Amino acid sequence: MFSEASNFVKGVDTSLAVVLGISVFFLVGITAVMIYFVFRYNKKRNPVATNIPHNNTLEILWTVIPTILVIVMFYYGWAGFKPMRNPPDDAMVVKAYGQMWAWTFEYSNGKRSENLIVPLNKPVKLHLISNDVLHSLYIPAFRIKEDVVPGKENFMWFIPEKAGSYDILCAEYCGERHSYMMSKLEVYDEDKYNDWYAYELDVSTDHPGLTILKQNACLSCHSTDGSAIIGPTFKGLWGRNEIVLTNGQAREITVNRDYLRKSLNDPNADITEGFNAGLMISYASNISDEDLAQIIEYLKKLN
Question: For residue 76, which of 69, 144, 171, 295 sits 20 to 30 Å off, Cα-Cα?
Answer without folding.
Answer: 171
